[in-house]
User: What shape does this take?
Amino acid sequence: MQRYTWRTGLLETFLIGAALLSLVPIIGLVNVAFKAPSNTSTALQFSGPYTLDNFVTAWVDGLLGAALLNSTIITVASVALLVVIGSMVSYLIARRTESWSTGAFGIFLLGLVIPGQLSLLPLYQTMVDIGLVGTIPGLVLINVGAGLPFTVFLFTTSLRELPRDYEEAAMIDGAGPVQSFALVVFPLLRPIVGTVVILNSIAVWNSFFVPLLYLAGTGLETVPVRLYGFVGQYTANWPVIFAGLIITILPVLVAFFLLQRSVMQGFSGGVKG
Amino acid sequence: MSRTRTPRARNQRVPLWFGLPAVAVFLFVIIIPSVQGIGLSLTDWNGITDDFSFVGLDNFVRILGDPRALGALQNTLVLAIAVTVVQNALGLALALGVNSRVKSRHVLRVIFFTPVVLTPIVAGYIWGYLLSPRGTINETLDALGLGFLAQTWLGDPRFALGSICVAIIWQFAGYSMVIFLAGLQAIPAEINEAAVLDGAGPVRRFLSVTFPLINGALVISLLLTLIGSLSQFDQVMAMTGGGPGNATQTVSTSIFRIGFAAGDYPYGLALAVVMTVFVAGAAALQYRFTSRKVTF
Assistant: This one.
């Protein structure tokens, strides 16, 4: 339709300039993280001496290894549970036609506009009472509850568009509801499972407020909570702080660059023209 | 297993227990504590013992006479409106840019989106450094001979909230971009071609063709930005912790301070109820005003 004209060239130059500007914080982050204590150059000056010591200090003194492990366990457990119980309840909502099914969907969607701050304090008290504060299962439970509204929204809307022919065929062949869901319906949901996994993984991995309340000071801290303590400890020692930040965002960035197309599609998942 | 039932009849029977785990978790984590939260905001609960008495709207009346709470509400609204407007305008501009014929469009999309996946407190710390008195922003101003514009960005009540907004917009403009991009890519090419044949210039095409057709994307992007920024906590904690003074205290950081740190639970909950009303109200209003259905 359009050809590459001088206007397009101008636009491209402008956009590349904007992209470089948008990368400045990340370029500065990497540059500072490698600077030796004797290096007085600024974040955008690329002169040595450089060192790897900041990374060693951050890794050892910051206890980042343990935090990465905690975050991984919590993220995997939360997302796996969300996929299983979220897809099951959505299957029920999408296939049963009684009026409670619409009502249940509406209540899950209400969860999208109730800020977590409202439930935070009473839930914390309940969790203290049943002894789940300061534990990984406690935090996983909260992550699953918080992630359900959007997960149910994504699964239910795509299940409603999925033709019933396959499950009916499976049932004629004698499959029960569990078999036909697990072996026929769920595999057909693969694209939306990808979206659910990506969005929830990023949300859980990055969340700060709730893990700060539940895990601070327990030794089970997740990466963001650990970083918060770490920054307090290394006030203004930016090279070490930045090395710590890089260590903790590296897994997320690597995953993003490997799966960039799916990740960006996932984030725009609610939009269908 | 009996095979006498028709497939349709059996198909109706997804067993109810399929919904049990999710409903139980959702009630336990979201619904019950939210209802408790509303109820307890009307009491003088001390957060520990179970004896408390009903005090009506006292906690809400207290908000009206509390400059700190009112300041937090005002900061939250200013931040939410500024971020929503600028982030969406920028996101739309970027989406139009990377949806054009430029050769580097795929790489540009990835670059603009990268900050979105960063942990928000990490983004907050990076910007805390850039904006510090001897940070990159002031150094760059100096190098350009504009040293007189240098500020203690996060230490000055006049600039702190605006500086936080810049950091949030930097991080999430790419999110709005991919939502608008999905909307733009769903517009059939023939519609634009028809407009070109009818003699419509680029501005006219954008206003009369493109803009009405990305309405769905607009609603979603505005809603997500507004809901997210009304409950903003992470970047504020990482950049200023609510300071200087209370210049960047938001409702979320106040709830944390009052409800948890100071132990005044019912008052923190009253603030949370006010926040819920804002979020739900904003969502409803926005949905109403921006969702004229456009089909093609």
